[in-house]
């Protein structure tokens, strides 16, 4: 059964009740409850099963805090709770399991938030205040059409192919030329250039989100994101390089959920290692812009990432973008590259070093600083194609390049071994 809890008026119900397994957590909770103006007697000993038993014979409160620590099957038990909860109840779960899949599944079931033990007074205060805000400022009613949202991930097959340049340019184009409220998330936590390319300070927003995923909500997004212009907001970081990334990915999932509510477009600059560490990040992505170059290494990794996407993000549309293309200097011809990956290159962006330097000097995105250039024109075509998806659920960005190459399956291994012994081991340029 789907959880019945939806935002609604409190009515005459009790404003709050809690069912907590341990005394330590209860001791932290009670002073916060008193501070909120609620009755500390509503903080009951016992976890989720006790809550189900009690609520089966009594009215549900407006806000319910329930402990999953003693539950062997939290998701199944949450469904049992849904059977006895009245519509309108906002449920906050707490527990000891730090697992991003459980977090996502709980949110998908309708849970408002999930807090990890040991609890702190500040953590509880923030969570309960956010839950209370659901009633004072509810979201749009169910009868209203959902605001369309297109999420794009930009992934480079190799370092230095220009994925970050393309990500920031697409975000800028969505926001300015397509007039769409747009979020840019730079997931290169230590060395990201998203804010730098827009001549902005990254701030602590992304770092705070990673450290405190439970704080992420609409208000947090409004305060933490840095505004580049009226329609473009960015979330990035310059974390100390002696501080490793310590997260289970819950913050990134929650950020994506809030982006869907607050923006029409979102662009995620996603380093390759993020695919490996947090495969669930692409579960809700509509378009994956796979940025490559015409080299053997990029051909190999394009094949690998396309295969990964097929297994882990079957709902995302891959868009193959060849970057920094220079005529006559590629390791692999376009025809051989397309044959090796068994699909067409959707867009080719010409190499223009002067244009890139110009953007850096001006502190602008490449697309903004070089609006009359050939690379800028291609970026506009890409942005228009992706933005068009929001108005057409059946749009297929890769239709023109779908299917196998006319040359049939290309043997990349034979290409890797294809050397001209008379040229000192240098690779011969395949014919177009």
TrEMBL record:
Keywords: ATP-binding, Nucleotide-binding. It comes from Croceibacterium atlanticum. It comes from the Bacteria. GO terms for biological process: negative regulation of cell division. Signal peptide: none annotated. GO terms for cellular component: cytoplasmic side of plasma membrane; cytosol. This is CobQ/CobB/MinD/ParA nucleotide binding domain protein. The keyword Nucleotide-binding applies. One of its GO terms (molecular function) is ATP hydrolysis activity.
């Amino acid at each position: 059964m789907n959880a019945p809890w939806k935002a609604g008026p409190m009515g005459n119900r009790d404003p709050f009740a809690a069912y907590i397994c341990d005394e330590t957590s209860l001791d932290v909770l009670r002073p916060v409850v008193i501070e909120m103006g609620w009755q500390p007697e509503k903080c009951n000993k016992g976890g989720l099963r006790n809550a189900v038993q009690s609520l089966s014979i009594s009215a549900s409160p407006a806000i319910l805090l329930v402990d999953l620590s003693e539950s062997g099957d939290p998701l199944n038990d949450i469904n049992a709770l849904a059977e006895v909860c009245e519509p309108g109840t906002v449920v906050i779960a707490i527990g000891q399991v730090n697992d991003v899949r459980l977090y996502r599944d709980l949110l998908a079931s309708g849970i408002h938030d999930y807090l990890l033990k040991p609890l702190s007074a500040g953590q509880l205060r923030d969570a309960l205040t956010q839950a209370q805000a659901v009633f004072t400022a509810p979201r749009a009613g169910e009868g209203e059409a959902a605001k369309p949202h297109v999420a794009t991930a930009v992934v480079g097959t190799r370092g230095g192919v220009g994925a970050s340049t393309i990500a920031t340019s697409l975000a800028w184009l969505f926001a300015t030329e397509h007039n769409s409220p747009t979020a840019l998330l730079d997931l290169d936590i230590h060395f990201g250039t998203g804010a730098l390319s827009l001549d902005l300070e990254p701030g602590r927003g992304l770092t705070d989100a990673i450290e405190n995923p439970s704080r992420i909500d609409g208000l947090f997004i409004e305060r933490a994101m840095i505004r580049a212009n009226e329609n473009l907001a960015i979330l990035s970081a310059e974390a100390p390089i002696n501080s490793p990334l310590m997260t289970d990915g819950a913050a990134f999932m929650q950020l994506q959920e809030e982006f869907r509510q607050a923006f029409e477009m979102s662009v995620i600059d996603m380093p390759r290692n993020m695919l490996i560490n947090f495969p669930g990040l692409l579960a809700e992505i509509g378009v994956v812009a796979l940025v490559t170059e015409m080299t053997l290494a990029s051909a190999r990794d394009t094949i690998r990432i396309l295969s990964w996407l097929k297994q882990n993000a079957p709902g995302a549309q891959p868009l193959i973008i060849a970057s920094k293309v220079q005529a006559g200097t590629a390791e692999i011809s376009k025809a051989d590259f397309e044959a090796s990956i068994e699909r067409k290159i959707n867009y080719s962006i010409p190499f223009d070093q002067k244009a890139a330097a110009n953007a850096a000097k001006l502190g602008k995105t490449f697309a903004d600083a070089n609006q009359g250039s050939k690379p800028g024109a291609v970026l506009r075509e890409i942005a228009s194609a992706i933005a068009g998806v929001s108005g057409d659920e059946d749009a297929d960005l890769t239709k023109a390049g779908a299917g196998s190459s006319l040359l049939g399956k290309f043997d990349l291994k034979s290409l890797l071994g294809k050397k001209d012994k008379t040229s000192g081991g240098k690779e011969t340029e395949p014919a177009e």
